[in-house]
Amino acid sequence: MSYRHSNRPSPSRSLTGRLRQQGAALVIALLIFAVCAGLMVAMQRQFTIFYQRGSNLFLGEQSQSYLRGAEDLASLALVLDYDQDKQREQPRDDLTEIWAQEATPYPLEEGGWLMGSLEDLQGRFNLNSLSAPARDNASTNRPRFTPSQMQFVRLLQALEENALGEQEAIALTEAIADWLDVDTQARFNGAEDDFYFGRTPAYRSANRPFASVSELRALATMTEPLYQALAPLVTVWPQQPRTLNIHTAPPTLLRTINANDDLTPLTVTEGQALVLKRQEQGFVDVEDLLSDPVFADRALDDVGNLLGTSSGYFLLSAQVEIAGRQARLYSVLQRRSRQVTSLVRASGSL
């Protein structure tokens, strides 16, 4: 009997080889799938970030466009008011005019809203008016405050819940004057670099006009409750102070009008009487205000020089909401005749 030798693999060995090849192919396929899935996840993440970033930029630009539109509308209202004032015998700016109306939300076509309001900055006390040096008073042998400084001392005592005593008000007024003047010599009750170097962190006095009301927080003897009470009543614009508008000044500021050498403010009752008369009859001019019985037998020529009836500087507070996101714009607008210019813009306080 003879046997033939065959090179053909056995069926079992051939099946095993095919299974091994298929297993290797499956592993490679799974590996490729895992790599592709990882790449897709990474690409999806990058795309989401890119999309969100683009959406944020678009919404930001859209919000800024609406806020600039609110600024244009505010400028238009101020120009219209100027044209109407020219037709009056005695032009003035008061709270009955178009620019002073209460803000109402304006609905936007794509959803959301836009609103804005104007406030007369010359209806606030200008902090930069405190920089003038006090004059010597020969009769009392001590410094005599300028009319603006005396008015501010009265204002600090008229803040109701956060009111200061007279000596505390004088100390803070002197500290502000030191903050503004160009020298480093501390005034009586004032503060200069030697005081502020002792704070943590240490800093120096500005020795220049205020750029923002928020600088008050850096001053000696200033507290946060006092700052919050004072901030809505003061401004740093214009940097060359103008007169206080008697038609737009709030009741607290009307109480700062008093006799030349009297550091106390008017009483709450006297202030309310002035506001009531302004609402019912109005004041023709500064002389009409100072002739009110509230000021009987008081010498008012010093403080009278600080008062006026018209304004050229206004604060726009605008707010917009788009896609559930809000943005704000604060803009200081200067009006000269029929021209309105934005002096500074910010998303925070001015």
UniProtKB/TrEMBL annotation:
<dbReference type="InterPro" id="IPR049031">
    <property type="entry name" value="T2SSK_SAM-like_1st"/>
</dbReference>
<dbReference type="GO" id="GO:0009306">
    <property type="term" value="P:protein secretion"/>
</dbReference>
<protein>
    <recommendedName>
        <fullName>Type II secretion system protein K</fullName>
    </recommendedName>
</protein>
<keyword id="KW-0472">Membrane</keyword>
<feature type="domain" description="T2SS protein K second SAM-like">
    <location>
        <begin position="244"/>
        <end position="303"/>
    </location>
</feature>
<feature type="transmembrane region" description="Helical">
    <location>
        <begin position="23"/>
        <end position="43"/>
    </location>
</feature>
<dbReference type="InterPro" id="IPR038072">
    <property type="entry name" value="GspK_central_sf"/>
</dbReference>
<keyword id="KW-1003">Cell membrane</keyword>
<dbReference type="InterPro" id="IPR005628">
    <property type="entry name" value="GspK"/>
</dbReference>
<dbReference type="InterPro" id="IPR049179">
    <property type="entry name" value="T2SSK_SAM-like_2nd"/>
</dbReference>
<dbReference type="Pfam" id="PF03934">
    <property type="entry name" value="T2SSK"/>
</dbReference>
<keyword id="KW-0997">Cell inner membrane</keyword>
<keyword id="KW-0653">Protein transport</keyword>
<dbReference type="GO" id="GO:0005886">
    <property type="term" value="C:plasma membrane"/>
</dbReference>
<keyword id="KW-0813">Transport</keyword>
<keyword id="KW-1133">Transmembrane helix</keyword>
<dbReference type="Pfam" id="PF21687">
    <property type="entry name" value="T2SSK_1st"/>
</dbReference>
<keyword id="KW-0812">Transmembrane</keyword>
<comment type="similarity">
    <text>Belongs to the GSP K family.</text>
</comment>
<feature type="domain" description="T2SS protein K first SAM-like">
    <location>
        <begin position="123"/>
        <end position="239"/>
    </location>
</feature>
<dbReference type="InterPro" id="IPR045584">
    <property type="entry name" value="Pilin-like"/>
</dbReference>
